[in-house]
């Protein structure tokens, strides 16, 4: 099983507790579920890739060269092996002795309410990792087509593909060029509307994308 936080509820929980707002990680552009980066909450699924992967450079992806395929295949292999294991979540509280003493008589009741609030959803590991493996494979196939066909938007489409791959296993930083591409595609509103980012405006033969500017710059 793999545990994912319900980001809407966990964010509200942090606010109610009066703590600093955590950094939320929408796994694979999922709108409502993912991971939390804060002082104490932990998502075990990050242990799969922590220190074990290196993403290909955008230039490698643009050429779809051997480095690109090798590094993407490494992620796929790690996720394939991970289907045999479980990755839960953990949350810890820091409090004074007085606060802990006050909490103990109602701890069981509070914990039951926390669980019943469905703050965490559980997905069978095979289903979870098979879903993301398929998505990575399709993005790899699309990027290979971009390298072979060299459409007029090859550079921007490469930036988008690499960003989507990275969102599956990490919380990527957007460079200015990628940020412009995401803005042109209404990335955040689209992800919120559908629950995950889709690109229905991609032409499967010409690889043209409505709303995406033409840009085929080999230096990215």
Structure, explained:
- This protein is of the alpha+beta class.
- The chain has one domain (2-93, 120-194).
- It is built from 9 helices and 6 strands, in the order βαβββααβααβαααα.
- The chain has helices spanning 7-17, 58-63, 66-82, 97-103, 107-116, 125-149, 154-169, 176-184, 187-194, and strands at residues 2-6, 23-26, 33-37, 42-43, 89-90, 120-123.
- The strands form 2 sheets. The protein has a 4-stranded antiparallel beta sheet with strand order 2-3-1-6.
- Helix 3 packs antiparallel against helix 6 (125-149), helix 6 (125-149) packs antiparallel against helix 7 and helix 7 packs across helix 8 (176-184).
- The longest helix has 25 residues, at 125-149.
- 25% of the residues are buried.
The Cα radius of gyration reads: 20 Å
Overall number of strands: 6
Helical residues, percent: 40-55%
Termini Cα gap: 39 Å
Count the DSSP helices.
9
Sheet with the most strands: spatial strand order: 2-3-1-6
Task: Give the secondary structure arrangement, pairings included.
Layout: E1 2-6, H1 7-17, E2 23-26, E3 33-37, E4 42-43, H2 58-63, H3 66-82, E5 89-90, H4 97-103, H5 107-116, E6 120-123, H6 125-149, H7 154-169, H8 176-184, H9 187-194
Antiparallel strand pairs: 1-3, 1-6, 2-3, 4-5
Helix pairs in contact: 3-6, 6-7, 7-8
Concise account of the structure shown:
With 220 residues, the chain is of the alpha+beta class.
Features:
single chain; 220 residues; alpha+beta; two-stranded antiparallel ribbon; 9 helices
